[in-house]
Write a structure and sequence with these properties.
It contains 16 helices and 23 strands. With about 550 residues, the protein is an alpha+beta fold. Bound molecules: flavin-adenine dinucleotide and the ligand C=Cc1c2[nH]c(c1C)Cc1[nH]c(c(CCC(=O)O)c1C)Cc1[nH]c(c(C)c1CCC(=O)O)Cc1[nH]c(c(C)c1C=C)C2. Belongs to the protoporphyrinogen/coproporphyrinogen oxidase family. Protoporphyrinogen oxidase subfamily.
Length: about 550
C-alpha cells in the first residue's frame, strides 16, 4: 500500500509495509476495548487489541494477598444481561457472585447512618417518604427513616405526586437545578448529592442532568406525556419508566443457559472483577501476567498509540511506541476506547476538529473537552471489634456486621471521604472472618487537592473518615491493603456534554470505519462498557460486510 506521511509530522517513518494488517484495530484494552475485542474475535473478525499498559482491564484491577481480595478501581457491577452473557461465553459463569439484594446503601447524616431504599427484599425504612433514584431511572417511593425533615418530606411529596415548575425551555439543567426544582433542596442535599458522589465523584452543580442521569431526567418527560397529569408529578413518570423497562426485558429475555440473575443486583467474580479481562486475555491468546509479544496472540500490551492517519486505500495506519520500538498497524477499521485525554493528539491527522474538541479532556477544569477529576481508592481493614457498638435503624442489626452496600458522606457532613464500600459484606471470602474490609473513595471534582497529598496523608484522611462514621474512638490503626490514585478517574458529563457528543458524531461521519468511543460516550458504568463491547462489534461487522 501507498506510504503515508503528513507535513505536520516530518519525522514520521515512511512505511512500505505495516508490521500488522487487520480488519479491525481496537485501541485501549479497558473493559470497553477488551469486551469489544472478545466479541469481534468470536464473530470471526481479524482483529488486534492494543493496550498501553502491561495488562488488560484498564481501571479494573483486582488484588489478592494475605487472605484479602480487594479492588483498586471499580468495586462491583449492577448486573445486566451483557455481563452474564459474556461470563457464559468465557466459561467463567461459575465464578460470578451476587450480593444480597436487600443490603442497602447508607447515608451518614447528623452523626447517624440512614438506609436508602433498596428494591425487592429490602427492609424498607419506616417513617417518612422514600424517594430515591435507581441508576436505571426508576424512582423508588416508600418511606425514608429520619433522613428528611417533615418540611423536606412535604416538599418532595408535592413534587412527586402533585407537580412542580416546568424546566426553562431548552436549558441544559445541572443535577442540582433539576432536583431542587422537582423535589426540593433537602432531597438534593441528603439523597442526590451523595448519590452523585457515589457514581461520578462529581459536582452536581456542573454535571448535566440530561447527560449524566439521562434515564432519570427522562421520567419528567414521561410524566408530562401522561395525558391526565399536566403538572409533571414525577411519580407517574417513574411508573411509566417501570412499565417501559418491563417491556424491554420481556422483549429480550436472558438465555436459559445463562446463570440466574436479578437485574441491577450488585455482582462481581469470586476473585474480583479482573476475572473478566483476564479471561478475555486468555481467550485472545495472551496469557495473564505475560506482557510481551506472544506468537498468535490477538493482543499487544505496552503498545501506546502515537498517531493515526488515513491511508490511500480508505483504511487507517496506526503508529505505536512499543518495547520493541516503533510499530505500525494497517487496519480497514479502527475503534478507539482510550480515554478522551489520551486521544486528542493521536487523531489530529484524521479528525482535527474532534481532536480540538477533546483537547483539554484532562485534569484542568473550565476548558474545552471532558473533565476527568482525580480519585484515590484506598482499601483498609479493621478488626470487627473496632466498630461502634450501635444497632442500625430498621432492625438491620449491629453496625459491626456492616449490613449494607456501603456508606456515603454528603458534602455537608464534614467527612472528606466520599464514600466507603463495605466490600467484605458484599461478596464472600474477601477477608479473614474477624475483619471488615472497606474500600474508600476520596477526591473527585470537589476535592482535586487530594492528588497533591502524600499517600500517608491520604491514608490518614481515610482513617479519620472511618473513625467519624464507623469506628470506636480507640480503634487500632488500619491494616492498609492498597492506596491507588486514578489521576483522571471518571469522565464528567458536564453542561454541554451532549452537544459535544453530537458534534463528535457529526464529524465521525467523515471518517467511515473509524469510531471514537469510550466511557465518556456510552456510559461510565462497568455494565455499560460491556454492553458497548457487544453492540459495537455488530456495527463493525456490518461495516466490514458492506
Ligand atoms: C475509582 C473508580 C471506581 C469505579 N467504580 C465503579 C463501580 O463500582 N461500578 C461501575 O459500574 N463502574 C465503576 N467505575 C467506572 C468503570 O470502572 C469505568 O467506566 C470503566 O472501567 C471504563 O472502562 P473503559 O474500557 O471504557 O476505560 P478504561 O478502563 O480507562 O480503559 C481505557 C484503556 O485505554 C488505554 N490507553 C490509554 N491511552 C492509550 C494509548 N495511547 N494507546 C493505547 N492504549 C491506551 C488505557 O491504558 C486503558 O487501559 C469506576 C471507575 C473508577 C475510576
Ligand atoms: C463514593 C465514591 C464512589 C463509589 N463508587 C464510585 C464512586 C465515584 C464509582 C461508581 N460506582 C458505581 C458506578 C456505576 C454507576 C451506574 O450507573 O451503575 C460508578 C461509576 C455503582 C454504584 N455506586 C452506588 C450504587 C448504588 C451503584 C450501582 C450499583 C452497583 O454497581 O452495584 C452507590 C455507592 N457508590 C459508592 C458507595 C460507597 C455507594 C453507596 C453506599 C462508592
Amino acid at each position: 500500500f501507498a506510504p503515508t506521511h503528513t507535513l505536520r509530522r516530518p519525522n514520521l517513518r515512511l512505511h512500505s509495509t505495516a508490521d500488522n494488517e487487520v480488519d479491525c484495530l481496537v485501541i485501549g484494552g479497558g473493559i470497553s476495548g477488551s469486551t469489544l475485542a472478545h466479541n469481534l474475535h468470536r464473530s470471526g473478525v481479524n482483529m488486534l487489541l492494543t493496550e498501553a499498559r502491561d495488562y488488560l482491564g484498564g481501571n479494573v484491577k483486582s488484588r489478592k494477598e494475605d487472605g484479602f481480595i480487594w479492588e483498586e478501581g471499580p468495586n462491583s457491577f449492577a448486573t445486566q444481561p451483557s455481563i452474564v452473557r459474556i461470563a457464559h461465553e468465557l466459561n467463567i459463569d461459575d465464578q460470578l457472585v451476587f450480593a444480597d439484594e436487600s443490603l442497602p446503601p447508607w447515608v451518614h447524616h447528623n452523626g447517624k447512618l440512614h438506609p436508602l431504599p433498596k428494591g425487592k427484599g429490602g427492609k424498607g425504612p419506616k417513617g417518612q417518604l422514600e424517594l430515591v433514584f435507581g441508576s436505571n431511572g426508576v424512582l423508588k417511593f416508600g418511606l425514608l427513616g429520619d433522613l428528611l425533615s417533615i418540611p423536606g418530606t412535604i416538599r418532595a411529596g408535592i413534587g412527586a405526586f402533585l407537580g412542580h415548575p416546568k424546566a426553562p425551555e431548552g436549558k441544559d439543567e445541572t443535577i442540582r437545578e433539576w432536583v431542587t426544582r422537582t423535589l426540593g433542596e433537602e432531597v438534593f442535599l441528603r439523597c442526590i448529592d451523595p448519590f452523585v458522589s457515589g457514581v461520578y465523584a462529581g459536582d452536581p452543580e456542573t454535571l448535566s442532568m440530561k447527560a449524566a442521569l439521562g434515564k432519570i431526567a427522562r421520567i419528567e418527560k414521561y410524566s408530562y406525556d401522561i395525558e391526565w397529569n399536566k403538572f409533571g408529578a414525577i411519580f407517574y413518570g417513574g411508573l411509566a419508566r417501570q412499565v417501559e423497562l418491563t417491556k424491554e426485558r420481556k422483549a429480550d429475555p436472558p438465555d436459559p443457559s445463562w446463570v440466574d440473575f436479578e437485574y441491577g443486583n450488585p455482582g462481581s467474580f469470586k476473585e474480583g472483577l479482573s476475572t473478566l479481562p483476564n479471561a478475555i486475555s486468555e481467550g485472545l491468546g495472551q496469557p495473564v501476567g505475560v506482557p510481551d509479544f506472544v506468537s498468535g496472540s490477538k493482543v499487544r500490551l505496552q503498545w501506546k498509540i502515537t498517531s493515526l492517519q488515513s491511508d490511500s486505500n480508505g483504511g487507517y495506519l496506526a503508529t505505536y511506541d512499543t518495547p520493541e520500538g516503533e510499530k505500525t498497524v494497517k487496519a480497514k477499521t479502527v475503534v478507539s476506547t482510550a480515554p478522551a485525554h489520551a486521544l486528542s493528539e493521536v487523531i489530529r491527522p484524521v479528525l482535527p476538529k474532534v481532536s480540538s474538541l477533546l483537547e483539554s479532556s484532562r485534569k484542568v477544569r473550565q476548558q474545552k473537552g471532558i473533565y476527568h477529576p482525580p480519585v484515590y481508592a484506598v482499601t483498609v481493614a479493621y478488626p470487627k471489634k473496632a466498630f461502634k457498638d450501635v444497632e442500625l435503624a430498621n432492625h438491620f442489626g449491629p453496625l459491626r456486621d456492616l449490613p449494607g452496600f456501603g456508606s456515603l458522606n454528603p458534602r455537608t457532613e464534614g467527612v472528606r471521604t466520599l464514600g466507603t464500600l463495605w466490600s467484605s459484606s458484599l461478596f464472600p471470602g474477601r477477608c479473614p472472618k474477624d475483619y471488615n474490609l472497606l474500600l474508600n473513595y476520596i477526591g473527585g471534582s470537589r476535592d482535586v487537592g487530594i492528588a497533591d497529598l502524600s499517600v500517608e496523608e491520604v491514608i490518614n484522611e481515610v482513617d479519620k473518615g472511618c473513625r467519624q462514621v464507623l469506628l470506636k474512638e480507640d480503634a487500632p490503626k488500619p491494616k492498609v491493603l492498597g492506596a491507588k490514585l486514578w489521576p483522571t478517574a471518571i469522565p464528567q458529563y458536564e453542561i454541554g456534554h451532549l452537544e459535544l457528543m453530537e458534534e463528535l458524531e457529526r464529524e465521525e461521519k467523515n471518517t467511515p470505519g473509524l469510531w471514537i468511543c469510550g466511557n465518556y460516550r456510552s456510559g461510565v458504568a462497568f455494565p455499560d462498557c460491556v454492553t458497548f463491547g457487544y453492540d459495537h462489534a455488530k456495527v463493525v461487522k456490518d461495516f466490514l460486510q458492506k
